[in-house]
Amino acid sequence: MVNPSSVVAALPRRPLVVGNWKMNGSRVANGELLAALRSAGPFDAEVAVCCPFPYLPDVALSLQGSGIGWGAQDCSSHESGAYTGEVSAGMLAEFGCRYVIVGHSERRVHHGESDQVVADKARIALSHGLTPIVCVGESDAEYEGGLTESVVKRQLSAVVHTLGHCVSQIVVAYEPVWAIGTGKTALPEQAQAVHAVLRAQLAAASTRAAEMRLLYGGSVTASNAQAMFLQPDIDGGLVGGASLKASEFSATCRAAMAAALESSGKSKK
Ligand code: 13P
């Protein structure tokens, strides 16, 4: 019997699965979800949930000592000051956040966030010790127009230019907009091709690109997760709807680890 932690340590990249609750939940429902998730753990993959801002203290309390991390779904691109309604990265750090999602397509589309604003958010998150999960992804029309590669490269390029070699400290999530909440997942090979483009772009900016985690998001479920996570440049998932059910989310987290072990040719048995 191999020690699971030594197997994890031997992997080139520890899989990461992050739940994005979006604007869902209630204090009661969250408590139940997190209690069930805690009892389904511990997980060999790294696991985190990104909740709406007001729930951060509750989530921190529920997950303390569980090994499951938590974070937020956005932060301001400013340090502090007269920005009504915004929440700073420093505030998130005060609540023990490990991660913050920046540049989710729902922010880019509904709140007009530009590539540069997203890059500024990533920079400020890093300066407060948070790991930004930078989302990139093409719209349906861009996909149909064959623009996927140029769109994601443009989105990532702003981040690379703003962060320089510190870009190695971020997590990138490729989320094709047409796959979000639609049940239409990208084919694993399709997603892999985009991930390979992103990793090559990161490699041009950092010698540590091979250590970086690149996540796929868009209708990930426990049943399609393993095929997706088996792809060589897909290191886990950013999970929306399926993160709201403890059994579905924990099965997705286990699938990430199973895929990592399978592709590295290792077994825990
Ligand atoms: P779904 O998993 O619900 O498609 O959402 C994906 C997403 O947007 C995660 O950030």
User: Can you count the helices?
Assistant: 11
Topology as H/E string?
Answer: HEHEHEHEHHEHHEHEHEH
Structural class by secondary-structure content = alpha/beta
- CATH topology name: TIM Barrel
Averaged pLDDT, please? 94
For the record, the CATH architecture stands as: Alpha-Beta Barrel
Low-confidence stretches: none
Helix content: 40-55%
How would you characterize the largest beta sheet?
8 strands, parallel, barrel
How far is the N terminus from the C terminus? 5 Å
The CATH superfamily appears as: Aldolase class I
By CATH reckoning, the class would read Alpha Beta
Strand line-up of the largest beta sheet: 1-2-3-4-5-6-7-8
Instruction: Give the ligands present.
Output: 1,3-dihydroxyacetonephosphate
Number of separate domains: 1
Shape: globular
What is the CA-atom radius of gyration, in angstroms? 17 Å
Structure description:
The protein is an alpha/beta fold and 269 residues long. It has one domain: TIM Barrel (Alpha-Beta Barrel). It has helices at 4-10, 27-40, 56-63, 89-94, 105-110, 115-127, 140-144, 148-163, 188-203, 222-229, 246-263, and strands spanning 16-20, 46-50, 69-72, 99-102, 131-136, 171-174, 214-217, 236-239. It has an eight-stranded parallel beta barrel, surrounded by six helices. Strand 7, helix 10 and strand 8 (236-239) form a beta-alpha-beta unit. Helix 2 (27-40) runs parallel beside helix 11, helix 6 packs across helix 8 and helix 10 (222-229) packs parallel to helix 11 (246-263). The longest helix has 18 residues, at 246-263. The protein is globular. 1,3-dihydroxyacetonephosphate (13P) binds next to strand 8.
